[in-house]
Every structure is written in C-alpha cells, then in structure tokens.
Amino acid sequence: xxxxxxxxxxxxxxxxxxxxxxxxxxxxxxxxxxxxxxxxxxxxxxxxxxxxxxxxxxxxxxxxxxxxxxxxxxxxxxxxxxxxxxxxxxxxxxxxxxxxxxxxxxxxxxxxxxxxxxxxxxxxxxxxxxxxxxxxxxxxxxxxxxxxxxxxxxxxxxxxxxxxxxxxxxxxxxxxxxxxxxxxxxxxxxxxxxxxxxxxxxxxxxxxxxxxxxxxxxxxxxxxxxxxx
Amino acid sequence: xxxxxxxxxxxxxxxxxxxxxxxxxxxxxxxxxxxxxxxxxxxxxxxxxxxxxxxxxxxxxxxxxxxxxxxxxxxxxxxxxxxxxxxxxxxxxxxxxxxxxxxxxxxxxxxxxxxxxxxxxxxxxxxxxxxxxxxxxxxxxxxxxxxxxxxxxxxxxxxxxxxxxxxxxxxxxxxxxxxxxxxxxxxxxx
Lengths: 229, 190
Known about the structure:
Chain A has 229 residues and is mostly helical. Helices cover 61% and strands 8% of the residues of chain A. Chain B is 52% helix and 14% strand. Chain B is built from nine helices and seven strands. In chain B, β6 and β7 form a beta hairpin.
C-alpha cells in the first residue's frame, strides 16, 4: 500500500481482491455441498444396489424415511362456494349444445416420440409390438400379399389402431410394401424381405375411424356367420 | 392472560397451516407463516414443535436450494417450506401402513440412492436399466410413474429424473446412501 502511486493501481488491487473473495466463496459453497455427505462414488452405489436383495433395499429406505403428515379438509366456506357453483352451473344438455356449436379444434398428428414422451406408449413395448407384427406379416404373406384390413382388424378398436400404427412404421421403414388397386378399391400388403431404402416416396393416408371399424367388424361377423351356416 | 390467549390462537393457526393441505403441496411456506402469525413466527413454530414432539412428530424445514442451513437468514426462511413429519423412521412392522409392497419400497430405495449418487440427476433410461436387473419392465415403469406423481421424483421433458420435493421432506438421503454403500450383500442361494 505505501507503494501505491496512482489511483489506477488502487482500483486494480481492489478489483483483484473482489475477484479473489468471490472465488473463495464459490469454493466454500462447493466444499459445503461435497461435505453435506451426499457425495459418494456412484459406481460403488450402483454395485451395491445390484448386489443387495429387495428386503435389504426396503430396510435401508425405512431406516431413512420419516413420512410427512398432512390431511385434506373441507371447510363450511368451501362447501358453500361449491353449492353456489352448483346453483349457477347450466344443465349438461345446454352446455353440450354450446360445445357443439363451437368450432372443433384442428386435428393434429402426434409422432411416436411424442406419444412416448406423453407416456401413452412405452418405447420398449412399442418396438416389441412392431417386431412381433413384422414376424406375423412375414408368416401371413408367405403365400402372397395379404389384405390390409384382414391383417389389421381385431376385436377391439384400440388393438386395430395399434396394429395399423405399427404396420405404418414397418412400411415407412421399408420392411413391407403397400399395393393399392384403386379400381377394385383393395389394399394389399406384402413383406419386402429385407429393408428397402425409400427415396422420395409418398404418403398414403388410410382412415380408420370408429364408425368405419364398426361397419367392417359387423361385415366380418356377418360373413363368418354365413360361412358357418 | 391475553398473551396466553394470543399464543394459543397462533399455535392453533400454525397447526392448521402445517397439518392441513390447502395448496398443491402440503405444509406451508415461510412467508405464509409470517403473514398469518407475525414476524416472530419462528417462536410460534418452536412452541408448536414442542407440542408435536409428544405425538412423535416434528417440524421439518426444507430450504429452496435443498441444502441444510445452520444459520438461515430471514430470506432463506421465507422461501423455505415447513412440513410436519414423523420424528422417527418407520419400523419394519409399520411399513405395511404405507400401503406399499416391499418390492415398491426397494425400487424407490434403489432409484433414490442411484440418483443421489449422481448428484441429484440421472436419465430415466439409466435408472430403468439399473432397476430392470431385478424387476420386470412393467413394474419399473409403473413404479417410476407413481413416484413422479407422488413427488418423490421429478422428470423433465428431456427424460432426466431428479430428486422430488417429497423426498427432500421425508427421506434422509445421506442415511439411505450410507446404509446401502456400507451394507454387505446377502449370500447367494445355492
């Protein structure tokens, strides 16, 4: 300090001190986190988890677990608010009319990855479904192409949709081909053997709404009924 | 006498705020307690805690940064959440009171210990791969989703799992990880 000759030197030294004190604080925070006892070798923990049985893991959790206490409550005030809400609520039939009059939102398509993120689909379960369907298609099309609707139709609408979706995956990835006859209005599918890299290509929308599915199912049941007679 | 009445009223109010859930999460924030009980709310909380000790309960303060604060500031306390928890851990015989099976408890223990060892964050895929060595796919998926719903775990859009708010309140992760890391594996059945 006695060697300071210029104000600039004083300012630079003050700046350096400030940066040093900031670094010390950051180091102190880092040490606090590490010293909180939660730092432990992840590999060791992973090995121990794999070696321990269910009972030992459950016991470890119980030794560290102190459950939270909380109760839900319904107060007279909240009940009175609910009664008031009930009083002003329109009947369902009137509300439904208003909903129908409102414009329907635009339909949107979701990709498989979005469905997985939304947890409608499990990635592994979906991949397994695609693999099984591919094997089924290979077996079914040994004698030649098979009818698309016969292949995807199942007893429930949900299962039919899942099969159609998985099949679209198989076709898009080049493991199967669609054969469309616009004159006879038939759609056939055949397995491609090995994966074909598609260049360009085009989208073929195939609508499977619930009414159509019901109509096809009823037709199938009638046809099978006639065959059995 | 009037001071006793005031304290008694404040104790009841504090108990209501902490024991009855009136938000998405149970407990109450420090600023809520300060607003209702006054700026000396920590004295009321300490008094309440002494009453709760007789019932085997205590008040847990979880700070916003998730760390322990030996000398918290007013700002730290304002943003912290106060819960009522059991004073001592559950015994093996009481575990059935949680309503969870032993294998669900084991999945939770393994998931929390693993994520803790990874400094509080791991991908869901890593956790699932670890758990699938001992449990079927459907159970791993079902249990992880259940823990996320209950608040023991958090998941972001990129599929990373974090320690959830309920774990911070209920579970002493240091003890959990120490027990798991220090335990001996069971002998293999012939």
